[in-house]
Write a structure and sequence with these properties.
Blueprint lengths: L3 E4 L5 E4 L2 E2 L8 H12 L5 E2 H8 L8 H19 L7 E4 L2 E4 L5 E3 H13 L8 H11 L12 H25 L5 H14 L4 H13 L3 H16 L8 H12 L8 H10 L8 E3 L1 H17 L4 E10 L7 H18 L5 E6 L2 E7 L3 H18 L5 E9 L5
Parallel strand pairs: 1-7, 8-10
Antiparallel strand pairs: 1-2, 2-3, 4-6, 5-6, 9-11, 9-12, 10-11
Helix pairs in contact: 2-3, 4-5, 4-6, 5-6, 6-7, 7-8, 8-9, 8-10, 9-10, 13-14
């Protein structure tokens, strides 16, 4: 074990000679920031002017070099007082400062980067692959330098490390697939999704692994969870991969030996009490359209699509919890005021799409106006509006 260990992922901590150093610096933010910046750029000499701009952004000083030299001197003295191991940790070099790379020191961020690089270059699962991945998961204890994450010099590097972690996990999953280690894939994806719940690739890998091991209900629950998260993001809608997975999910035959009587029972069971429009995922709405379009053309009618949008009058983004409430109220209004043959699907965080078969532009507006009236009755805040657009799905020739 190295004499000095530095932790920058999930926390900032330096342990030298068995002693924790950072907590002893107290509230000296400038000293801590100086250490963080030099460690983050351990292979570079940082010019005094550049380092001053980082530590005192936007400030003017008659003698910036003097202010920086004083800070460095005090930090050196403080660290040397804790342990002689850190007495020479900051080196003066060509008009600037750098972290002393000659120290017997291990920095978790750089070990993490090296292991991820090793993982990404691994062509097939081999002895030691699982151990390497375990070390990667253990090292990535959280975002880079929490507490300083808003600093520009931290944010870019933090994003890069986050993406590197996801790439390493995804590559490891690919190595496991030929071995059909679906349980391990599911476990790995769950751990990675604790770090980034929005990653669509990992969500898909988890759902596919759950299907492989026969946990279809869990796969459906994960699908619902993932799509809800995606729809909660501004401008987001379910990816094509998620939509295709849903088709795959509903096509899985849980019990191929079911009799036709059982199937009839399932179909009839959903009829009583089902009033108003049919609510489904967007992928199902799309399939319903393709299923019905030929019959409608044969009958000489068309199908209209309506897109209803909730927005703030001042066009600012709606706060997520309030948006969730508004969209639930809108869905209730849609179900209450549309016909049983109409189909409703969430299209984006602020929008619902509605298929209206066998209507004209004039007759199609009638139920939509009812929906608007119902929505405003439920929520009459003038700061928010409900608007809609109505158009035939296929333009008439």
């Amino acid at each position: 074990m190295k004499a000095i260990r530095v932790f920058m992922l999930g926390r900032f901590e330096i342990i030298a000679d068995g002693n924790e150093v950072i907590k002893n610096l107290g509230s000296s933010k400038k000293r801590i920031m100086l250490l963080e910046y030099l460690l983050l750029n351990r292979d570079k000499t940082i010019l005094m002017k550049d380092l001053f701009d980082v530590l005192w952004p936007g400030e003017n000083s008659a003698n910036p070099e003097s202010a920086l030299k004083t800070l460095v001197s005090r930090l050196r003295s403080t660290l040397a007082g804790y342990t002689p191991l850190l007495a020479e940790c900051i080196v003066t070099d060509r008009g600037g400062y750098r972290w002393n790379s000659a120290l017997d020191c291990e920095i978790d961020m750089y070990v993490f980067e090296d292991l991820c690089g090793e993982m990404l270059e691994t062509p097939a699962f081999a002895a030691g692959t699982r151990e390497t991945m375990g070390s990667i998961m253990s090292l990535y204890a959280g975002e880079l330098l929490p507490g300083a994450e808003t600093e520009a010099w931290v944010a870019a590097r933090s994003v890069a490390l986050h993406n590197l972690y996801l790439r390493a996990v995804q590559h490891y999953v690919e190595l496991l697939k030929p071995l059909e280690l679906w349980d391990e894939i599911a476990q790995m994806c769950r751990m990675a999704l604790d770090v980034d719940a929005f990653d669509s690739a990992l969500n898909l890998e988890l759902m596919n692994a759950l299907l492989k091991i026969g946990h279809n209900n869990e796969a459906l629950a994960q699908y619902n969870h993932a799509t809800e998260l995606q729809l909660g993001q501004p401008g987001a809608k379910p990816s094509e991969g998620m939509l295709e997975f849903y088709k795959k999910l509903i096509s899985v035959d849980n019990d191929s030996k079911q009799s036709i009587e059982s199937i009839r029972g399932d179909l009839l069971a959903i009829i009583p009490g089902e009033e108003g429009a049919f609510v489904c995922d967007y992928v199902i709405l799309r399939d319903i359209y393709h299923l019905n379009m030929r019959n409608l053309a044969r009958l000489g009618t068309t199908m209209f699509i309506a897109l209803l949008t909730v927005s703030a009058v001042d066009e600012t983004p709606v706060e997520p919890l309030l948006l969730d409430k508004l969209m639930k109220l809108l869905l209730a209004s849609l179900k209450e005021n549309l016909r049983r043959g109409d189909t409703v699907a969430r299209y984006s965080p602020t929008q619902y799409a509605v298929l209206l078969p066998a209507v004209s532009f004039e007759t199609g507006r009638v139920p939509l106006e009812r929906v608007k009236k119902s929505f405003y009755k439920k929520y009459s805040n003038p700061a928010f509006i409900l608007s809609y657009r109505l158009a035939p799905v296929a333009e008439e020739e």
